[in-house]
Specification:
Elements: H1 2-9, E1 18-21, H2 33-38, E2 45-47, E3 51-53, E4 58-61, E5 67-71, E6 74-78, H3 83-87, H4 89-101, E7 106-109, H5 118-126, E8 130-134, H6 143-150, E9 156-158, H7 163-173, H8 188-205, H9 214-227, H10 233-242, H11 244-254, H12 265-281, E10 289-294, H13 300-312, E11 322-328, H14 331-339, E12 341-343, H15 352-358, E13 359-362, E14 365-368, H16 370-373, E15 376-380, E16 392-397, H17 406-419, E17 420-428, E18 441-445, E19 450-453, H18 476-490, H19 493-500, E20 508-511, E21 517-520, H20 539-542, H21 545-561, E22 565-573, E23 578-587, E24 599-605, H22 623-714, E25 718-723, E26 728-731, H23 762-772, E27 776-781, E28 787-796, E29 802-811, H24 813-835, E30 839-847, E31 853-861, H25 864-869, H26 873-876, H27 881-884, H28 890-902, E32 906-912, E33 917-925, E34 931-938, H29 940-976, H30 980-995, E35 1000-1006, E36 1011-1018, H31 1022-1027, E37 1030-1031, H32 1038-1045, E38 1049-1051, H33 1064-1071, E39 1077-1079
Parallel strand pairs: 1-4, 2-4, 7-8, 8-9, 10-11, 10-16, 11-15, 16-17
Antiparallel strand pairs: 3-6, 5-6, 12-14, 13-14, 17-19, 18-19, 20-21, 20-24, 22-23, 23-24, 25-26, 25-29, 27-28, 28-29, 30-31, 30-34, 32-33, 33-34, 35-36, 36-37, 38-39
């Protein structure tokens, strides 16, 4: 839509043209095109109704569900679309536009996907219209422009903003340059320029257009003059000399190859249902069906007939017996046809069933299956001058004869009749007919222009005219002779007759040297009489019997004497009366006369009363006199006949002698032929052998081609093959993810094709590879953020010749992401590996021949390994366990074997006696069987502490028992009322001694201030005594905890009480060197806390 807005933004409001805008959208899509175009153009933007009349300076918009066509200046809309019309609505509209407007039709293809419009563009060009396409480089979606350019028929490729101005220039030039069709109306400079143009065409392209209809050629030349904005024919001739590329452009315009599958479907129905059954039904199993498509263009018609044959021969004859020849003079079209690849729009006329059966889907189009392509032989061939194929059952020459002049058409009809078998079929276009050769063909289906050959007398093959070669150094006299010869060749028989009748008005007949009638005047038929039997054009067989003898004699004498002869006073009986005639025979033998070789016979009717040499007398004369003169005349004729007979007898004798000599020569020739036959048989055997070898090679090549095609389709690598000129030779489907490639891009320079790479100069790399024959490999980025590994390497043939370069693209986006993730993981791993406090070792198990673990090897260790084991990493890494620790316990190896070989994950604590250390060991398998990892810490100190603690706990249990006894004794002392201070001090001393403690204290509870007061202590520092003198409930000391809980509290390490680093309780304990503390509350019988 952006491109269309830009287009109409540049269109003036008074251009005088009508515009129809069509978008290729889904029928269900709600289009806002009209609203958007009204914003950019002052012209009225109108919606198309069922039948809308075109008006200048208006824009017409159709909805996506409408089927638009042009009919007599109206746009006709229909919602009832066939399936093929839905696939190609723009093509359908262009076809009808071409039919209705001819040279005034202009088609413009802008940004879009697919190939819609390409087929219709061909029809517009065929009708003499113009085609403009938006440059693919600026198109948002370049598939439609590129597919249109691939037709090779586009007039100009321009930025969208420049197209309206170019169309206006084209419109302004229409009709300004007009070349008269009649030669006599053309000025001398125009005649000379036209000859120059045709000479250029013949010399540069090898194509001779002398047999083409002049009006068609001149219209195409006028169009090229208009496209180049030149004033006249001489200017264009000069432009051709200075711009050789224009020769190619003119040739393309003259050889527009436009066709489609099953063109004129009803005609093909006749071929399918009536013609092919007759041809194939009459064949024996070993006989071939031979077809010739003359003027096959891009191959659609040839493939259409091949599909019909394949369908018909499925149960009747082996498809390999079908031989189809498809020829054209356009080499580009032939190359396209051989490929057999057509876009979706090209195949719009093929039914879905035939698409599935006879085509393979490839990218944005279809390729004809190999078995159908093998039925057809495509060749460059000019059926006007080249020898034809022979023994054909059907010739299809559609929409070609309409471009040829009458003489060429007659010669082509004779050529086709010679090439066809008796009863063979000729299939022509709807604008063509074989009625001009009714003696050779009879209508089989006149409505659909199918004809069948007549059974006629064997004719010689019409030798084609040779193409004269032009030599600019010829003398004027030679040129004059050639021109006179051309005048004679182009002269029709009517012109010839007219010239010979300038002095004679009576009825007349023109015959050739064989007395075959080539032309009759209007009233000459009265003297001819048609008899039964095979029809003939020989004058002596058609002349009335009364005149035959005299006419034969006169013709003979005229040819022999090479002069005029008259036979006078001959009577002829017509239906109701008798006439007296003088017959004048006048041959033409002058060397430079265009009528040379023809004979004029004039029948002059004369009045009896004015005849001076009257043979028949009046009724008053005696009958005897009349009879006597008649007898004298008969005698004179008899003498002439005798002389003629004697002369002929002499000629026959001479001919007989010549025949005998020829007979001898024939015998000699027969012997030579027999020898040649034997040689040919020998050569034939060799050819059979070679053919068999070639067949095997073709099968091998086909297999290799299939393998290569499957490899190309299955390998997820974008690959482009370039020739030495860096033109695309082949590409894989994956290459289209980076390059905007379509099948028609084969042969185009890679630099002309847009890509999605970010600043990648491939051509420079390719030039370097061709120069140095090395391989270039580097990473390139696409504009969508993906990363590719590009490799450019030489393309080497089996003969080790460099025929170009191969460019491959590997998508390494995910690999790069994985590598980056792996790198980051490696960094994290190394950081963790080097920083963790635990020792780490990556190991592999070593087994004996029976698979029993006998040792292990440390492959990698971390820095903490040395701190934990005391072993240097360099001394352990790469060494076996027994090499590092010779006295290692076998149980270690057994345990590691279970982990490495059985996949067990184990965690255990074990002492390695050889190192004298305890380890907390974690062992796990590491991926590949036989590998395992160890993560372990040195717990020797903990183990020692635990052992000491166990011993301490045992002692404490014993002391506790004693303490309970002491407690009981103390309670009794207190109750007995002794001196409290001495009692407490004695109890404290006894208790510490009993418990083997280093220090102790007794604290009594004061209910008044809710605190514990120190009343006795031993072994405590003065600062500690001072701190614990009064202990409140907020304190975190052991005695406070026991008081709160009212139960004994024991802690083996005061650090487990989670003191803060600067806690006063912790400092008080540390000042007295206290580590383990036990506090027992004193409870009264009433359950109250005493101390």
């Amino acid at each position: 839509i952006k491109a269309m807005q830009e287009f109409f933004r540049q269109v003036p409001a008074d251009s005088g043209m009508a515009y129809v805008a069509i978008l290729h959208l889904s029928p269900n899509h709600d289009s806002r095109l009209a609203e958007l175009l009204r914003q950019v153009t002052p012209m009225p933007v109108l919606a198309i109704t069922a039948k809308t009349k075109l008006e200048p300076n208006c824009v017409y918009i159709g909805s996506p569900d409408q089927h638009l066509s042009m009919v007599d200046g109206f746009i006709v809309s229909s919602q009832n679309m066939q399936e093929e019309d839905r696939r190609a609505p723009i093509d359908i509209f262009f076809r009808t536009l071409a039919l209705s407007h001819g040279a005034n039709a202009v088609c413009v293809i802008l940004s879009g996907t697919g190939a819609n419009g390409s087929m219709g563009l061909k029809r517009v060009k065929e009708s003499g219209g113009a085609a403009f396409v938006q440059s693919p480089r600026e198109a948002e979606y370049n598939e439609m422009p590129r597919n249109a350019i691939a037709t090779d028929l586009v007039d100009e490729v321009l930025p969208v903003a420049d197209i309206p101005g170019r169309i206006l220039l084209y419109k302004g030039n229409l009709g300004t340059v007009q070349i008269p069709v009649e030669a006599e109306k053309r000025a001398e400079d125009q005649q000379h320029a036209l000859r120059e143009i045709f000479t250029h065409l013949r010399l540069r392209t090898g194509h001779d257009f002398s047999n083409y209809k002049r009006p068609t050629l001149l219209r195409r030349i006028e169009r090229r003059i208009n496209m180049r904005n030149l004033p006249d024919l001489p200017a264009y001739a000069g432009y051709l000399q200075q711009n050789p590329d224009e020769i190619t452009a003119l040739l393309k315009d003259l050889l527009i190859s436009v066709t489609n599958f099953f063109r004129d479907k009803k005609s093909f129905d006749v071929i399918e249902q009536e013609v092919l059954p007759r041809i194939i039904g009459g064949k024996k199993a070993e006989e071939q069906v031979r077809l010739w498509i003359a003027g096959c263009a891009t191959g659609e018609e040839a493939y259409s007939l091949a599909m019909l044959c394949a369908e018909r021969t499925l149960s009747v004859i082996d498809a390999s017996k079908i031989q189809i020849f498809a020829t054209d003079i356009d080499e580009t079209a032939i190359s396209f046809a051989r490929e057999g690849f057509y876009t979706i729009n090209d195949a719009a006329d093929v039914s879905p069933e035939r698409l599935r059966r006879f085509f393979n889907k490839e990218g944005d189009g279809y390729r004809v299956r190999r078995e159908i392509r093998e039925m057809i032989l495509f060749a460059n061939h000019n059926f006007i001058k080249d020898p034809p194929f022979s023994h054909l059952d059907l010739i299809s020459c559609r929409n070609v004869l309409i471009y040829l002049n009458q003489t060429a058409q007659e010669r082509v009809m004779e050529t086709f009749h010679f090439a066809l078998k008796p009863g063979g079929f000729l299939f022509l276009g709807l604008s063509e007919s074989a009625d001009g050769a009714s003696d050779l063909y009879t209508p089989f289906s006149r409505e659909y222009h199918v004809f069948q050959t007549r059974q006629v007398t064997m004719r010689a093959y019409p030798v084609p005219e040779s193409i004269p070669s032009f030599n600019y150094s010829q003398t004027a006299a030679t040129v004059s002779i050639v021109q006179e010869q051309r005048v004679r060749e182009r002269m029709t028989l009517g012109d010839l007759h007219q010239r010979l009748l300038e002095q004679y008005a009576p009825p007349s007949v023109v015959v050739n040297e064989e007395y075959e009638i080539v032309h009759l005047s209007e009233r000459a038929g009265r003297y001819l009489q048609i008899t039964g039997g095979e029809p003939s054009q020989n004058l002596l067989k058609l002349i009335r019997p009364e005149l035959r003898l005299e006419l034969r004699s006169a013709l003979y004498q005229a040819v022999q004497r090479q002069s005029a002869v008259e036979a006078r006073g001959l009577k002829v009986n017509l239906d109701d009366h008798t006439e007296t005639l003088h017959i004048h025979v006048r041959p033409v033998f002058r060397e430079n006369d265009a009528a040379r070789g023809f004979i004029l016979i004039v029948f002059e009717r004369t009045a009896e009363e004015r005849s001076q040499n009257e043979i028949v007398v009046s009724s008053d004369e005696p009958v005897a006199k009349q009879l006597e003169e008649e007898l004298m005349r008969v005698k004179a004729q008899l003498r002439a006949s005798i002389e003629q007979h004697e002369f002929q007898a002499e000629e026959l004798k001479a001919s007989n002698e010549e025949l005998q000599a020829m007979n001898e020569e024939l015998r000699s020739a027969a012997e030579e032929l027999e020898t040649s036959k034997e040689e040919l048989q020998s050569i034939n055997e060799e050819l059979r052998t070679v053919n068999q070898e070639l067949k095997v090679k073709v099968e091998e090549t086909t297999l290799a081609s299939n393998n290569l095609q499957n490899l190309i389709n299955s390998v997820d690598i974008g690959t482009i093959f370039l020739d030495r000129s860096f033109r695309v030779a082949l590409f894989t489907p994956q290459a289209r993810t980076l390059f905007n490639l379509i099948p028609n891009d084969i042969g185009r320079p890679l630099s002309d094709i847009t890509n999605r790479l970010d600043n990648s100069d491939i051509i420079t790399d390719a030039e370097t590879v061709l120069e140095k024959l090395n391989v270039i490999e580097r990473e390139v980025n696409s504009i969508d953020g993906r990363l590719f590994m590009m490799r450019v390497l030489p393309y080497r043939t089996e003969e080790d010749r460099i025929n170009g370069v191969v460019v491959t693209f590997f998508d390494i986006t995910e690999r790069k992401k994985s590598e980056e993730a792996l790198r980051k993981s490696e960094v994290r791993y190394r950081s963790l590996f080097n920083s963790i406090d635990e020792a780490y070792a990556f190991c592999e198990i070593i087994t004996d021949d029976k698979g029993i673990p006998v040792d292990y090897r440390m492959l990698e260790v971390n820095p903490a390994f040395e701190k934990t084991t005391g072993l240097k990493p360099e001394a352990a890494q790469g060494q076996t366990g027994k090499e590092v620790i010779p006295d290692i316990d076998a149980s270690w190896i057994e345990t590691f074997g279970k982990v490495a070989l059985d996949g067990l994950v184990m965690r255990f604590e074990k002492k390695m006696d050889a190192l004298g250390k305890w380890f907390d060991m974690y062992a796990a398998p590491a991926g590949k069987k036989g590998k395992f990892t160890l993560v372990f810490t040195d717990i020797t100190e903990r183990k020692q502490t635990e052992e000491a603690l166990r011993n301490s706990q045992s002692r404490l249990a014993q002391e506790l028992e004693r303490m309970q006894v002491l407690q009981s004794a103390s309670s009794e002392l207190i109750r007995d009322g002794f001196d409290a201070e001495n009692i407490y001090s004695g109890i404290m001393t006894a208790a510490t001694r009993l418990m083997h403690a280093d220090a102790g204290s007794i604290q009594m509870y004061s209910a008044q201030n809710n605190k514990l007061r120190l009343i006795a202590s031993t072994g405590m520092a003065s600062e500690t005594i001072q701190y614990f003198e009064w202990v409140g409930p907020e304190a975190k000391s052991v005695c406070a905890i026991a008081a709160k809980r009212k139960e004994r509290f024991f802690v083996d390490n005061i650090s487990k009480l989670n003191y803060e680093k600067k806690s006063k309780d912790l400092q008080a304990y540390q000042q007295s060197g206290v580590v383990a503390v036990q506090s027992t509350p004193l409870i009264s019988r009433s359950g109250n806390l005493v101390g």
